[in-house]
Amino acid sequence: MTADRTESSQEAFLASYDPHAFPPFAVTVDVVLLTVREHELSVLLVERDTHPFRGRLALPGGFVQPDEDLESAAVRRLERETGVRRSTAHVEQLGAFGDPARDPRMRVVSVAYLVFAPDLPAPVPGARTRSVAWVPVGDVDPATLAFDHEQVLGAGVERARAKLEYTPLAAAFVGDTFTVADLRRVYEAVWGGALDPRNFHRKVTGTPGFLLPVGRPAPVGPEGGRPAALFRRGDATSLRPAMLRPGSA
Amino acid sequence: MTADRTESSQEAFLASYDPHAFPPFAVTVDVVLLTVREHELSVLLVERDTHPFRGRLALPGGFVQPDEDLESAAVRRLERETGVRRSTAHVEQLGAFGDPARDPRMRVVSVAYLVFAPDLPAPVPGARTRSVAWVPVGDVDPATLAFDHEQVLGAGVERARAKLEYTPLAAAFVGDTFTVADLRRVYEAVWGGALDPRNFHRKVTGTPGFLLPVGRPAPVGPEGGRPAALFRRGDATSLRPAMLRPGSA
DNA sequence: CCTCTTCTCGTCACCCCGACCCTAACCCGG
DNA sequence: CCGGGTTAGGGTCGGGGTGACGAGAAGAGG
Questions:
Q1: Closest chain A residue to B4, measured at CA
Q2: Is the same domain home to B96 and B173?
Q3: Domain count of the fold of chain A
Q4: pLDDT at A120 (0 to 100)
Q5: Splitting chain A (249 residues) into consecutive groups of 10 residues, what average pLDDT does each group show?
Q6: Are B99 and B145 found together in one domain?
């Protein structure tokens, strides 16, 4: 399963490459970076400054390098263009999007990655980046997005909603330590509806491996109320049985 | 969102293409075609007759054409190489596999598709095809598969097992009309364990939209027993709550 | 002190599920 | 004809998960 291709053989291949022998494809990665800001599920969008779709909003992304793994390419874009570190976020592949007409320049297949990140206090844009902004997914005008990014974003949001049902990944949206209410607000933002605080508390605390109680018993409440207990992420990877969203009977 | 690229501009692009401007990628599709044969979950494998991995077993697949949609490319391979018609099967994208070393010839990104098909009585191989065979997934020797197809197959099987839990897609593995026992044998083959016939019957018949009773009340039993009622697929797309596999608590 | 807030535990009814009994309906051999 | 094999499928019972909701705990502020 190891390749015998090397840098030099890659060069030889390039030199002898005939674009009519097989059609050249470009492969890109797009990143659907989601977070919860002010009780709203938001996505990071950048404004394009080059053809095509110049001036339109788009998901961060770019070409995959010749010897770069797909996920590495996505993580590189994530860290360079958004300032999010890989270790603090959850990254998973969303899927490949390859409609022949999705890019007017040439045939491009894009592999989309879905990232859950906590709402970082620092302004997220990294070094060499054009205009970048968090946009609540409900405020995104689908017609203004570049390429087929409306479809990619839609798939990412739906995947996120489904993943909260049967995984503990909601914890990827909050910081290192958090309260049950923090977690509940993530669910409410992603699913778009209120949840019963008592039943939610019973479910998440009753699921082994979801929450790890941290000794420190209490921070303060921003607007009154009894201080909540602090937790850390557990090592559970799935929720069985799942926590089903209410409106989807 | 409409492309201005045409056939002639594609030609112009090819003529002026410089392989050093951006690295050429090849894009392929691989098909994980699963069925249930003789109470065993099986995958369709072909024997490669060209370099690389000549003589090794591999998933059916091939290069995507310049103006071909990814799913169309997968369905084309499915129909040409396996004889399975798209209308009788379930097709979904499994994911993209793009390890730089997965193909020794050059950089190849493969988009894998997962297909559920009923066990057709006709010999499945199509017209121009090399040696092709159904192999029970438990009998596949992982080390003998070409490329990274062990990883692709593993992802497909795990996806199939999960999908049976929360979708009615098990019906894609059986024919047009089927009995509850047929469906149960699908679950047992995919999950690899026995299920209680009475509880299974209660669950599937009690889920609205899973099964449509067909008037014809009874076929015959192959080895005795009371004749079972016949059903057709319903229009439900998800199972809520899910049917969880026993061993996964 | 009272009142507001949020957190957290408890209760109750209901549903779903696993385990299990029993009858229905067919085939076959005696 | 009849008894014994098969599978199909309905019913019962208890336990666990969940929605709806009550109520106390623990803070801030008037």
A1: A104
A2: no
A3: 2
A4: 79
A5: 40 48 84 97 94 94 95 96 93 98 95 95 61 94 96 98 98 96 98 98 98 80 85 96 86
A6: yes
Residues 165-204 of A with CB under 8 A from B: none
As a three-state string, the secondary structure of B162-224 is HHHHHCCHHHHHCCCEECHHHHHHHHHHHHCCCCCHHHHHHHHHHCCCCEEECCCCCCCCECE
Interface check for A30 against chain B (CB to CB < 8 A): the answer is no
Contact criterion met (CB < 8 Å) for B100 and A241 = no
Position A184 in a domain: yes
Residue pair B75/B33 in contact by the 8 Å Cβ criterion: no
Separation between the CA of A239 and the C1’ of D25 (whole angstroms): 30
Which residues of A, range 54-73, sit inside 8 Å of B by Cβ?
63-70
Residues B235 and B143 in one domain: no
Domain boundary among A132, A164, A196: A164
Distance set, CA A153 to CA A113, A206, B20 (Å)? 10, 33, 32
- Plot region of B95 (φ>0 → left; ψ -120 to 50 → alpha; else → beta): left
Query: In terms of domains, do A128 and A204 share one?
Result: no
The domain in which residue A79 lies consists of 24-164
**Higher confidence at residue B20 or residue A83?**
A83
Give the global pTM. Answer: 0.91
Single out the residue in B103, B123, B149 at which a domain terminates: B149
Chain A residues inside the 8 Å CB shell of B103: 3
Which residues in chain B are contacts of A9 at CB distance < 8 A?
Answer: none
Contact (CB, 8 A) for A75 and B41? no
Average pLDDT of the segment spanning B207-232: 85
Mutate to test the interface with B, among A10, A11, A13, A25 (most CBs of B within 10 A): A25
Strand-strand pairing, B177-178 and B231-233: antiparallel
